[in-house]
Write a structure and sequence with these properties.
single chain, about 200 residues, mainly alpha, 10 helices, HDIG domain-containing protein
């Protein structure tokens, strides 16, 4: 793969995220997706690991300010990213994850874009499920538990199951494989992974 340029450092991207997002949940979501993207980049495109991370970090840049206009999600972000020096390839990768809302936006083509599309909502579902667990940790979370939450439409109702299914299809993965690999990705950077002691 060719080297991809984001037009900004990771620190600058984080500053931009914090400029447009005040809710700690949105910052945390950006960082979770960033780390998930970097995990997969190490397998598929190690030379561009930081770029993949910045795509994950900024993917929902404009959501907090414009969540009442889902069809324009990432349109506002594109303007903010461009103004901050972000490159067209950074903007394209970010916009591809909302092509289901707005068919004028580019569809995911690169592996990076497909991974973002498939895992972004899924990390939210996993995060919501973990909070309900006694351990409050991803380290003892299993695919079978995620499948139950996925099937329960009332649980984390804002998470689009259709997008997750569609993302798995794009990647040519079974849902179970997507679930397993995303859980593993999140376990790789879980804050408590070094101190976690499973319940007896």
């Amino acid at each position: 793969m060719a080297k991809l340029e984001a037009g900004m450092t990771r620190d600058e991207a984080l500053e931009l995220l914090k400029e447009h997002n005040k809710d700690p949940f949105h910052i945390e979501h950006g960082e979770t997706v960033e780390q998930t993207m970097m995990y997969f980049a190490r397998e598929y495109d190690p030379e561009n690991e930081e770029f993949w991370g910045i795509v994950g970090l900024l993917h929902d840049l404009d959501w907090e300010e414009h969540d009442n206009e889902p069809e324009l999600h990432t349109i506002y972000a594109a303007q903010d990213i461009e103004a901050a020096g972000g490159t067209p390839e950074l903007i394209r990768a970010i916009q591809s994850h909302t092509s289901d809302f707005n068919t004028d936006l580019p569809k995911p083509e690169l592996m990076m874009e497909k991974i973002l599309f498939a895992t972004e909502e899924l990390t939210g579902l996993i995060g919501a499920a973990i909070v309900m667990r006694p351990s409050k940790s991803v380290m003892d979370f299993e695919v079978k538990s995620l499948k139950k939450k996925f099937k329960d439409k009332r649980f984390a109702a804002g998470v689009s199951r259709e997008v997750i299914r569609s993302g798995a299809e794009m990647l040519g993965w079974e849902l179970d494989e997507l679930f397993d690999r995303t859980i593993t990705a999140m376990q790789s950077f879980a804050p408590d992974k070094d101190t976690f002691v499973p319940a007896e």
